[in-house]
Amino acid sequence: AIQAVSSTATYFDILLGVPPTFTIDTAQLRRNFLRLQQAVHPDSVSQLSAVERQLAESQSSWINHAYSTLKDPLQRAHYMLELRNAAVREDDNVVDPELLSEIMETREAIEAAGSEAEIAALREINDEEIKETVRMLEQAFGEEEMEEAQHLTRRLQYLKRVDQTIQEWELGPPIEEALEAQDTASSPLLVQDTVESPLLNRADIGPSSLNAGITWACLGSAAIVCLAPLQYGYHIAELNTPKKIITGCAPSVGSRLPQCLPMSDTMFSLATSLFAVGGLVGSLGAGWLAERFGRRGGLVYNNIVFVLGPLLMALAVSPAMLAVGRFVSGVGSGAAVVIAPLYLSEIAPVRLRGTLNLLNQLSIVVGILLTLTVGMVANRGSLWRVSVGGGLVLACAHLVLSALAVESPRFLWARGRRAEARTVLRHLRGVDDVDAEVATWGVSGGDAEQVADDMIADPESPNGTVKPVSSTELRADGTTVTVFNIFRLAQYRRQWLLVLLLQFGQQLSGINTVFYYSSTVLE
Length: 523
Description:
0% strand
């Protein structure tokens, strides 16, 4: 049965089973956290009473807050000082002359930084200062030197703010204006104590990107990227209308490109269905492509396949060559329908992700309509080669127009290109204040442990929202849920059964027959 946490229990008692200590085993902390969260996860308590489920939800929030406190050295230091009635407020002014002098020097160094190399050097120095301060905190708490621990906590607090300021750094007027504004503030701290941004006050920035709609810049990038699923739709039905003229003439003699490619219905069906086989291959490789080259970059490289497939079909001299072209086009299509929705979700405003993703399905349908229309117009003689080669035009158009689309800001952020990610996000939203939206991403580039915390509930969130707990991160043994082991996990059985039923239903509806053979059926 679920029981309430004792009012006298500390975070250390519950998550580590030890008295309060600054030096902790972070790996053990994470393992215990996952185990406790698994015990109170909604799937684990779904059969309990409403009172126990509510208690489990409360415990989950408490455990999340305990974990986020203990895993961060600064928050851990604040918590330990609170337990000893020696709390340090985050808005306390700095009175130590040595630290004040260091603050002023750091401000001047950041203001004077004129390149990424200079700011990287400052970041490296600050990282070393953080490590040394944490080491000294361990010693101070170990020797019960509370005054020294208070001083070091203030110093670590300042260094963390410097780190955040460096991460937000961008060359140009924005940071200069922010620093000038900061000079007029009453506090001698490097930055204001706000949750939105270490440099700027939200009231001075303007509307938040969380409330932004779909701008022309966002819609333009989405439309360009949707040329990828449009090509998928085009290739689905490209053999539908011209089937008769591809297979129904006498073999030609002395021509480099025969007027038609006589073949049996079985061979034509094989050439048609190889598109789906290629789609499977492309979809399996799409994840690697999107992570290696980016969302937009992955789709740009995918156009190489989209160029090769139509070329093989348009220049086919045998049924086998036509079939290979279909397979290659299928590879590109499989990758396109995986990467394009991912891109649309990542550039869409938070409130309108579903709306913008409608463009993906709309593009597919428009592609089908386009290929059927071209097939009807080019339905004589050897013009079927124009029909099957039409995808080449779409691929070339996508290659050219991709230069006008932006890369996904979330991909840039995950790769540590934070300044570029913020610039792109401001361009997409049409507002300057993107801090709140960036905070919802959670992932810091290269920080593997932070990825596991992206979807953890945050009861201290300034806007009162709670992020959903990711089931992927709640395995008690710390393993990751993958496509290969999900079928063995009871807690996901209902979800994957629903997905399989939907997919079976789609296939058994006969829609693929309409895409591939409707012209033959209606004749």
